User: Fold this.
Amino acid sequence: MRLRNVKNANEIVNNCEFLIKNPERYKGKYNTLFNNNNPIYLEVGMGKGSFLIQNAINNPNINYIGVEKMTSILARAIQKISPYNLNNLKVIRADALELANIFDQEIDTLFLNFSDPWPKNRHANRRLTSKIFLQIYDKIFKKEKTVIQKTDNIHLFESSIISLNDYGYKIVDISLDLHNSDKENYMSEYEEKFSKMNIRINYLKAIKK
Assistant:
């Protein structure tokens, strides 16, 4: 499902009106970019944007930012988002390791949807719920930290539960079969694909005060 190449991807990204270029200059003042003081929800690894589009449409009083490091994927997301003219949705081209250089205690909720599971033990630190990344998130969250994760990979899910718990997060909501629960849910492209294959989706919401 990952895209190899998108024709004119760089041009599409660079000409995008809702792309935040040089995001470091907005560090600590994203409210001025959105021109309001609404909560900011961040998705890291936004894919082609379906999840953010649905959220932004249905929650106009929340600002959404999607982060994606792969230019081709971000280009596809931009093409998908553009027709909606959403004032509460922006995108950034960056790696998750750069987040502390981009934000400063201004994120309310972090979404990790179908992140790379990095299944080998030697790659455990690359998982977006490893201690390395949780330490980065400490710098971007407001006082209360909220992480919401969805994944089809049970091993990543188990690893995330352990890592979050060890780091002081409390798991306040969890499901091993999200689509057969009564939770409100907006699906990403991966999730739609897995749903058609009858693959169970794991979900958790973790909070640290």
